[in-house]
Amino acid sequence: MGDECEWMKLPIDQKCEHKVWKARLNGYEEAAKLFQKIQDEKSPEWSKYLGLIKKFVTDSNAVAQLKGLEAALVYIGNAHVAGRMTGEVASGVVNKVFNQPKARAKELGAEICLKYIEIEKAEPVQEELLKGLDNKNPKIVVACIETIRKALGEFGSKIVQLKPIVKVLPKLFESREKAVRDEAKLLAVEVYKWIRDALRPPLQNINSVQLKELEEEWVKLPTTAPRQTRFLRSQQDLKSKFEQHQAAGDEEDVDEESEAPVVDAYDLLESVEILLKLPKDFYDKIEAKKWQERKEALEALEVLVKNPKLESGDYADVVRALKKVIGKDSNVLLVALGAKCLAGLACGLRKKFQSYATHVVPTLLEKFKEKKPQVVQALQEAIDAVFLTTTLQNLSEDVLAVMDNKNPSIKQQASLFLARSFRYCTPSTMPKSLLKPLCAALLKQINDSAAEVRDAAFEALGTALKVVGERLMNPFLVDVDKLKLDKIKECSDKVELIYGKKSNAGASKAVKPGPQGKAAPSSSSGDKVDAHPNKTVGPSKKPSTTKPGVQSKKGKGPGPASGPGGKGKKTTEVREVESELSIEVCEERAAAVLPASCLQQLDSSNWKERLASMEEFQKGVEVTDKRELPCQALVRMLAKKPGWKETNFQVMQMKLYIVALIAQKGSFSRTSAEVVLDGLVDKTGDIKCGMKAKEALTAIAGACSLPWTAEQVVAMAFAQKNPKNQAEVLNWLATAIKEFGFAGLNVKAFISNVKTALAATNPAVRTSAITLLGVMYLYMGAPLRMFFEDEKPALLSQIDAEFEKMQGQTPPAPIRKLVKRDVDVEEAAEEQDEEENANVQDLLPRTDISDKITPELVEKLGDKNWKIRKEGLDELSTILNEAKLIQPNIGELPGVLKGRLNDSNKILVQQTLSILQQMATAMGPNIKQHVKILGIPIITVFGDSKSNVRMAALATLNSWVEKTGMKEWLDGEDLSEELKKENPLLRQELLGWLAEKLPTLRSVPSDLILCLPHLYSCLEDRNGDVRKKAQDALPTFMMHLGYEKMVKAAGKLKPTSKDQVVAALEKAQAIVPAKPAAPAKTSSKSNAARPPSTASTRAHSATTNDDTDVTALKNDPKKNKATGSTAKVKPGISKKVPSKPNLKDDEDKSGPIFIIIPNAKEQRVKDERALKVLKWNFTTPRDEYAEQLKTQMSSCVAKWLQDEMFHPDFHHHIKALTALLEHLESETEGTVACLDLILKWLTLRFFDTNTSVLMKVLEYLKLIFTVLSKEDYHLTDNEASSFIPYLINKVGEPKDVIRKDVRSILNMMCKVYPASKMFNFIMEGLKSKNSKQRAECLEELGALIEVYDLNVCQPTPAKALKEIASQIGDRDTSVRNAALNTVVTVYNICGDQVFKLIGNLSEKEMSMLEERIKRSAKKSSTVSTKQVEEKTSRTQGLNPNASVPRKGCEEVPSKLNQARSNNSHATSESTPMIPREFQLDLDEIENDNNAGGCELPDLVQHKLDELYEPVCIPEPKNRSVSPHFDEIHGSTDSTINFVVSQVASSDINTSIQALAQIDEVLRQEDKADTMSGHIDQFLIATFMQLRLIYNTHMADEKLNKTEILKLYSCIIGNMITLFQIEALAKEASMGVLKDLMHGLILLMLDSRLEDLDEGPQVIRSVNLLMVKVLEKSDPTNILSSLIVLLQDSLLATTNNTPKFSELVMKCLWRMIRLLPSNVNIINVDRILLDIHNFMRVFPRERLKQMKSDLPMRTQKTLLHTLCKLLGPKIMDHLALIENKNESELEAYLRRVTKHAMALSGGKIDSETEKGGSTIEDKESKAKISETLAEIFKKIGSKENTREGLAELYEYRKKYSDADIEPFLRKSSQFFQNYIERGLRLVENEREGKGRISSSSSSAGFSSPPDESPYVASSTSIPSAGSTNGEEVGPAVYLERLKILRQRCGLENNSKPEERQPATSLLSKPTVPAVASSSELLHNKLAHLRDSREYNQEQESHHPPMQTNSNTTSAANLDDLKKRLERIKSSRK
User: Fold this and answer.
1) The predicted structure's pLDDT at residue 966
2) In Å, what is the CA distance from 995 to each residue of 939, 949, 981, 998, 1072?
């Protein structure tokens, strides 16, 4: 009971894991209740139980397991995360539940599996169930089969994959267990319901009894298709429809989506490898002389090809052998057998056979000459099977080639083949370009003398008519008489299409001669129409059913019905050629529309009567309805005598005008045109009538098509022999081509006439011909020149000159339509484009080289000797060069060249690739039929190890793709097979090529999905380049296949691989490129005139016409009608015309432009994250982005503004921007609410090419960001990511004004968006190809780093700077300079650390960088120090707490603008200038006239009253501090960084000034902490300066050594000050301390210093500094650094002397003496690790070999001391040492510890304490004089006075008997009194009698108030001498007092010439004047704090002086001295 009480208290999840089954049972019950209570499917509570669900179902206790199953079922149904454990839970169910005896457990297990399927986890469940079928336990197998059957019955074959199920069925039927076989039978019946007869082939080999039973069960099944009854979570809409249908009892009305998919049995079969199973002697036997041996070979092959599905492979040799048998074998039985083998091969390979199809079809067609039925039937089966593997288009040329054969059998069988093939086609697979030549050939055959040929042709034409419909067929049947037309229609009615209304079963029966076993599966598979789903059947029916009825009524009813669709092709084409009318009929019909007087006067002898007759004629034509206009009759009347011989030009002009009018208005046929053309051509050369004649010709071209008209006109012109007419006709044709376009123009028809014109003697004719060729060149390009290569060189040069003029120009858009015939062209624009392109290629003369591909050449190409093979290739190259353009028939060449691509000789491989490239150019688009056999092997060459071979292969491949397009390459499995090869070179080249090509395609074949498994394997390839290329290719695959399909394909991978792939897919989803827009159609509909805005063109190209079209439509109602649908889609433009709506719009514009909807912006962000809308990410905006934005704006932007914003005209965009500007101030809240939409719209405007819009956009952006910063608004990430990248793109604009504005906006954005995030976006801008953009981005990055420090660099400074530094090697100079400047900016901040951050650079780049750093150092020394002030004020300006009021963006330049223009010296006058802490404004002082007659030598003006007081005893006084220090405190980091960077300057004066400024901060206790965090940086800069002095300055003889000593004094003084502040001293890191000690020791050993007067004094100061460093630094860091430094010094052979190592060891000894007091704060582990490393490098034997034993003694002393202090515990501090055996440390410590314990008997601690105190006693006795000397030195130092007095007080208190009199005696009386007063004050403080603030005390105990901080520091140097017992004389202090008295005016009576300059008053070593004046600056700032307004007035009063001071070199000390003297003299 006690145990039960224990587990009852446990939480539910712990109960479920308890070892007691009752506890688990209770846990499962409670868990089930809990799961039902949780409402939120995403509750975190679910995750707690996720890992336990498998335990729920696999519980070892049967009772608990039942409850666990119930709980698991509830969990899976409700938890969002349940799917994550699908595989594990399903596996548990299969192995641990299905074997249970309880039926309830099995039911729950099956239901769990089904529930997982319901939550979209079908694949893993099915996988586990299929694994269960291999289990040895039959119970599990039966349960798995039953579950699969249930899943299939409920979810259907769309969810449950049938292929793996069908694959295992035969195995299940072979099971020994009856229960398994019975269940398998039920499963087979269920599968049959879904796929019907497709199940038969896979089960054909099972037991016949079982098959019979199955057949009986199958017959009983209902014929209706089964339906899905249970639905996935994502199919809830289908579920609701299903429930509605069930409720209504409507079982027939089933949604198409719920119907079972058609399954092809072929897909369910396993492929069989037959190539390896071929007999070894197959190829020998098949060429044997005995027919019996050949038969044996074929029979062996026949058995193999009977397998319904064959493994893909290289069947080229097999096909070649069969082709030879079929084509050349004399035994017809073998021909039939070979044909059967070929059919089996084609059926087994299907699409994989496509590459061989074009090679065997000509042979099959030729062999139809055989008359034996069995041979003919075998050939029919073979050619039908081959056709199913390819397309009719690929075979059309071979079929057309035999249509003119003399053998009627061949013609008959070719026509029958076409008839059978047409049944598999659809209107989309039979374009006009294919139908036209086939119909022409068939129409010839319907007139053949052989009846069987005629019948076959009728059948083929009838089938074509059934497929494409009468509308498309009628143009080709114009000349067919009625009887034949009826026969064609009769055949059409009898045809049953394979791909049409009939079911697949019925369709297969319709194929008369088709093979029973093969054709049916092929037809049902839809192989021929894989790319065209079933819904495309609809359109194919319409032409054949509805259109004829419509066409029959065409002539009658006007109205909309007779618009675009009304004028069918039939009517038009029939009218094109009408029967000629007799003159009587013409007169009769003309009389019906013309007055009698008009007809009578037509041939009058009086020209006036004829003119009047013409006028009446014109009126009659104009008023007559177009349908009633008898065109032929009227033009024949015009041609009556005098006809075209009319002598009066007025009458002639009228006559020509009327012809044009009739042609435009009436139904003008070609018969009518033939009546007038001859006369019109004759008049084109007439001066007065020529223009009218050309207009008439143009009108006729519009009515009868330009191609026909041009052909007739040119032929007539050159038949007339009139050069004037010839020239004018050619000119007219050139103009007409531009107006009508080049579509359908038959160049061959008049090219000979053009050649005649070029040879004409008349120059006008030649000129016109050349002009015409120039126009044709626009459309045809370079191939046009081939027609004229035989012309004379002089003429050819003229033609070339004309072509050069046209290069780079695009053909103008056609502005005229073919009025009556082009309607159909619009409907089938793509087909016409294809036809047009094909026509241009067809025009070129091509040579048939098949006869030159001789067997000898083929033999050479395959020879074993490489030299002979090379000869063959050379011959082939010569053949191609001579032929230039070739026909696609190249014989056996493809197979041989394929072999050469695998040649062992790489030179021959390259030559073959060159030939293939040459062949692509020569063959043109026809090369596509060789893609499979020759093109794919080119890809295989990508795997070659030589890069030059791979590059040649890539060039060849691209040349082929240029001619063929990508479809041929992506179709089939060939590409996936190549990608499957595990060759890293092939994979990376192929993936790179696909990543480049796929984004350019609008659609791809479905076979692309076959590449996915291999693409995923590439993502995990060992080779990094392959993985990179695969990642790059992922988005391009996704743009075509979609994310869902790709994730689904990844589901078949192993779990580990799947996770990686899915993660990669998620990343790729965000960067999927947009599909390219549809190409512009070459009709007037889209390109009449290009609007000025390209972006608006893109946005509206799908729905609107341009303005020219609108005008044309208004003026021409006929044209308007003809393009009715086009005219309707542009309502926006039509609104511009009336004025009233505009007035109404103006009234509406009075309201607000934004509608504020709460949370609308947040909702838009959620929608974008959930991918409900397109993510705003594109290279160029597509139409859907503009539409989406318009939709989003519709609810929150005024309608009128939205219309303006999305108008195609840029003027409206400017109006919209103006409105936004006007409403910005008044509607700020609305602007913020819609800011994301506004910014997105502005990004669209960035893509406009109009500069006015762009400037307006930038103006608006500047204003809006100013307003946003005032409102303290911060951009969201969504707003920033959808705007900033596009703004950054504009920073690379060529126009300076735009770039400047964009930079200004980027600067302003830092106020509303974090600079660190901006940094990321700008870094992305570096990837641009635009060099200007990269340069500007680099400059912007430099500005950000300068202002915000390195913290702004994202993701880390190292990564960012590596990327920036990589730009140093850029080709572009501006990019290089910008990159260098940015790195120099970083150098100024962090010094030499920059070289670590930027990584490795090439020597050239590094030298450039070093040179730039040197130059920048020189410049910085000459730049006015006023820039430091500007930087400080800029930093203040961006402080959010600063009180400076915001102003307009142009008035208040931010710090970024100022950082960008560091060389700019002018600042805004309106900006209040705040003086800096460490700088004097000498110009202001110099020009200040308000000082009166004051004679004080102060550098700045301030109150001087206090200085006149007598200085007897210095009073404690507060140091004045900059009033603005608090204001800048928040942003001092950047200031300190700047100053610290100057410490390392190569210019001595710059460095001294920086050190002075840092010293000023360090000396103020309340401000010294601002240096925290910068200590390492400061120390690095310091020892860099020491190194610079040591290596450079000391070696420079030109330099004054006094200056070097000054610098040394400043450095040492600064360091002493720093290391007296313990908190700051401890910040120094180990590495920095090591370098510092190294530098100091080198300085002490520098013999050059000893030669200088003050050298020894400097060395003593360094000695004192080193003592401070050892005492005050972090003991761990300093001790560690000394150990490492000792190790380095002992290793070094050249740089360091033995003396160096000795000094290091002395430092170590001092640290050892300090160990007892520091042992508790030292990190002993680190110290021991360093000692371990030392001992590893210097083992005992090596130390013994050294000349000196000091290193060994030092090591032993250190270890012994540590052992004494820590005892045995020291062994616990070896944790950091990974391999303790590498050194003797551990053994040595054990030995020492053991020895110590043995001696002391375990009392180590007490001995240690005793020993420690003894050491201290000895030390204090030995060093008492040194200690006191240090204390007195501190007292003498200004900044450490208080500390020194406190130490002296403690010392006297501790050692009351100590005698300090000797030290006091050395100093002056004044100093003794000073010490006594100080000690009294300390005593008072300690006793609580009086408290003085630390700052007051510090100041009070220091020297008098106005003394320079550096005076103390400088005087501390001689005082250091006291450490060695040297006496410090009172002269030092008297000198200091004298200086102070002079400054305060107490000794001002001396003459001016006797006064020393300021610098000479300082005790040696002296410091520069700037350092000594810093306190005066603080006094001025204190004065400024009291009267800021006065200072502001004063500063605004002298702005020119401020500017001038900027240009002054404050660093020049000589100049400073002169100016100081001027100031002094002016004050006297």
Assistant:
1) 87
2) 15, 21, 18, 6, 11
What's the token pair of residue 1241? 């719209």
Looking at this protein, which amino acid is placed at residue 710? A
C-alpha span between 415 and 442 (Å, rounded): 7
Q: What is the amino acid identity at position 2012?
A: N
Residue 340's nearest CA partner among 520, 202, 516 is: 516
Bridge partners, 272 (sequence order): 310
Q: Is 227 helix (H, G, I), strand (E, B) or coil?
A: coil
User: What Å distances lie between residue 295 and 291, 325, 332, 333, 1141, CA to CA?
Assistant: 6, 10, 11, 9, 88
| Predicted pLDDT at 1988 | 44
Helices (H), ranges, 350-450: 354-366, 373-387, 392-402, 408-422, 432-445
Q: Is the dihedral of CA 1259, 1264, 1267, 1268 positive or negative?
A: negative
Per-residue b or e along 695-713, where b marks 16 or more CB atoms closer than 10 Å to that residue's CB: bbbbbbbbbbbbbbbbbbb
Q: What is the pTM of this model?
A: 0.44
Q: How many other CB atoms are found less than 10 A from the CB of residue 51?
A: 13
Rg (CA), the chain: 49
What is the per-residue pLDDT for 1956?
38
The β-bridge partners of 886 are 847
Q: Give the pLDDT confidence score for residue 343 in this predicted structure.
A: 92
- The Cα 106–Cα 88 span in angstroms is 17
Task: Give yes or no for a contact between 217 and 145, defined as CB atoms under 8 angstroms apart.
Answer: no
Contacts 24+ apart (CB under 8 A), 366-373: 366/327, 366/402, 366/410, 367/326, 367/327, 367/335, 367/339, 368/407, 368/409, 368/410, 368/412, 368/413, 368/414, 369/407, 369/409, 369/410, 370/332, 370/335, 370/409, 371/409, 372/332, 372/336
Q: Which long-range contacts (CB under 8 A, 24 or more apart) does 620-628 make?
A: 620/593, 620/594, 620/595, 621/593, 621/658, 621/661, 621/662, 621/665, 622/661, 622/665, 624/593, 626/665, 626/666, 626/667, 626/1118, 627/555, 627/667, 628/593
Q: What is the pLDDT of residues 1582-1608, one digit of tens each?
A: 888 888 888 887 777 777 777 888 888
Hunting for tokens 């969002």 — which residue is that? 80
CA distance 186 to 178: 12
Per-residue pLDDT, averaged over 1504-1531, amounts to: 43
Tokens of residue 1923, six digits: 């450490």
2024 vs 1186 pLDDT, higher one: 1186
Q: Residue 144 and residue 1612: Cα distance in Å, rounded?
A: 86
Return the residue matching tokens 């619009």.
826
Residue 1154 confidence (pLDDT) above 80: yes
Burial label, 1229 (beta-carbon count in 10 A; 0-12, 13-18, 19+): exposed
Q: Is the CB of residue 1276 less than 8 Å from the CB of residue 1239?
A: no
Residue 1365 near residue 1553, CB atoms below 8 Å: no
Query: Is pLDDT larger for residue 1084 or for residue 31?
Result: 31
Lookup: tokens for 547: 């259109």
Q: Please tell me the distance from the alpha carbon of residue 1661 to that of residue 1833, in angstroms, as a whole number.
A: 11
Q: Are 841 and 925 in contact (CB under 8 A)?
A: yes
Q: What is the pLDDT of residues 243-273, one digit of tens each?
A: 776 666 544 444 444 444 556 667 667 788 8
Position 1484 pLDDT exceeds 70: no
Tell me, what's the pLDDT at 1? 45
The Cα–Cα gap between 1572 and 1585 comes to: 21
* Predicted pLDDT at 144: 93
Region for 639 from its dihedrals, namely left if φ exceeds 0, alpha if ψ lies in -120 to 50, beta otherwise = alpha
CA dihedral 317, 322, 327, 330 (to 10 degrees): 120
